[in-house]
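Troubleshooting log. The previous structure file for this entry was overwritten by mistake, so regenerating from the original sequence record. Sequence copied from the archived sheet and checked twice against the printout by T.R.
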Amino acid sequence: MPHLSVNVNKIAVLRNSRGGALPSVTRAAAICIEAGAQGITVHPRPDLRHIHPADVAALSALCRGQAEFNIEGNPFAPARGAYPGLFELVRAARPDQVTLVPDADAQITSDHGFMPASDAARLQPLVEALRRHAGRVSVFLDAGTVDLHALAALGVGRIEIYTGPYAAAFSAGSPAEALQACARSAAAALAAGLGVNAGHDLDQTNLPALCAALPRLDEVSIGHALIGEALYDGLAPTVRNYLRLLRSTTGGAP
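Regenerated output below.
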């Protein structure tokens, strides 16, 4: 079944809104891992609105030998202030996966992916450098993107399909076209020898249909909805609910 990687950015947002150390990002991540989550994701940004460099170091140590650690970020965003840049964070933490996302500073959240046809050349030296310090490199792409052989040639290991439009279409009651776009990208990735991740706005209602449409999905990264649902049901039970959904949808082993 697909692995569940829990994005803990929202825990850091809550902590930073008050200052201090509570709630603890590492304790939340530990609870997720204890409940069965196979991965932890963070997306540090240059303005340090949530995840800080110290969180990256602490989570790297926590995950080692227990769960995959995934660092997301814009590889073209330069270091500034206390933000050392994505490459330095990856070099120090040596995560299992680094996911490249073309988000600008002003974005509230990621809302589009890279375009392999036009971005592969400028990504090449960054992918080569990051592969020396991360287990794999994944690239965030819009659903429907199918020209993926250039990414495979760079040494990229996986793509992550941006599922925001699918989630919006699901909420509107018409997900078929968006699901087909996700499926086209997944098929193209597999044909190019790449693994397939998916993430953004996934929740317990729209996840089963996505998994059914992408039977060879490797990983889903879920943060905002999962943390929101955990406010009502508790963090560990919510993680277990997601794992139960993934298992029942794909028929995979725990």
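The chain has one domain: 3-250. Archived copy saved in two places this time.
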